[in-house]
Design goal:
It contains 5 helices and no strands. By secondary structure, the chain is mostly helical. Among the domains are: about 60 residues; about 45 residues. Helix 1 runs antiparallel to helix 2, helix 2 crosses helix 3 and helix 3 runs antiparallel to helix 4. The longest helix has about 40 residues. The termini are far apart. About 20% of the residues are buried. It is found in: Membrane. One of its GO terms (molecular function) is protein transmembrane transporter activity. This is Putative mitochondrial import inner membrane translocase subunit tim23. It is a multi-pass membrane protein. Pfam families: Tim17.
C-alpha cells in the first residue's frame, strides 16, 4: 500500500477542484430598545421628579447648612486677608524681622480670621433660624420671610448694645434683605411677583 494518502488532504466525497459553498452568516438580532424616535428625547419635562404638591426648590432648612458654612468660610477668608494686612503693617512699624515677624503675622491672621468667621457664622445661624421659624409659622416661603428674617437678625444681634444700636442693626438687616429681594425680583426669581404680573 502506498503512502500517498498521507500527503493528500482529507476529503468527504468532494472533488478538489470544487470550491466550498459560501457560509451564510446569521444576522444578529437588533435590540428593540435601539429602534426609537429621537423626537421623544426632546421633551420639556423637568429633569428631576418631585413628589406631588412638593416645592421644586430646596426650603430654608435645607439651605441653612450651606449658608452657614459659606458664611463661616467667607468670614475666615476676609478676616485672614485683613489680619495679614494689619500684621504686615504692625510688624513693619515695630521693625520686626525673621521668626518673630512670621509669628506675629500668623497671630494676626488667626485672630482676625476666627473673629470674622464667628461673626458671620453667628449672623447666618440667626438669619437661617428666623427664616425656618417664619416658614413654619406662615406655611410658605417668600420675600416677606426674607425681609422679616433679616430685620430680626439685625435687631437680635445688636440687642445687647442699647436701643439705638439695636434699631440701627434692624435697619441694616432690613436694608440688606430688601436689596436681596429686589435683586431676586429683577432676575425673575420671585414666584409671587411673576403671578402678580400675570394678573396685570
Amino acid at each position: 500500500m502506498s503512502d500517498d494518502f498521507l500527503s493528500k488532504p482529507l476529503s468527504f466525497g468532494t472533488s478538489s477542484d470544487e470550491s466550498p459553498a459560501p457560509s451564510r452568516q446569521k444576522a444578529s438580532p437588533i435590540s428593540p430598545y435601539l429602534n426609537y424616535d429621537p423626537r421623544f428625547l426632546q421633551s420639556a419635562q423637568p429633569e428631576f421628579i418631585f413628589p406631588e404638591g412638593a416645592s421644586k426648590q430646596r426650603g430654608r432648612f435645607e439651605l441653612a447648612f450651606s449658608q452657614i458654612g459659606s458664611s463661616v468660610m467667607a468670614g475666615a477668608s476676609i478676616g485672614g486677608v485683613a489680619g495679614l494686612y494689619n500684621g504686615i503693617k504692625a510688624t513693619s512699624l515695630a521693625n520686626q524681622t525673621g521668626k518673630l515677624r512670621r509669628t506675629q503675622l500668623l497671630n494676626h491672621v488667626m485672630k482676625q480670621g476666627s473673629a470674622t468667621a464667628n461673626t458671620l457664622g453667628t449672623l447666618a445661624v440667626m438669619y437661617s433660624g428666623f427664616g425656618v421659624l417664619l416658614q413654619w409659622a406662615r406655611g410658605e416661603d417668600d420675600e416677606i420671610n426674607t425681609v422679616l428674617a433679616g430685620t430680626s437678625t439685625g435687631l437680635l444681634y445688636k440687642s445687647s448694645a442699647g436701643l439705638r444700636k439695636c434699631a440701627i442693626g434692624g435697619g441694616v438687616g432690613f436694608t440688606l434683605a430688601a436689596l436681596y429681594c429686589l435683586w431676586g425680583i429683577s432676575k425673575g426669581k420671585s414666584s409671587k411677583f411673576n403671578d402678580f404680573k400675570q394678573y396685570m
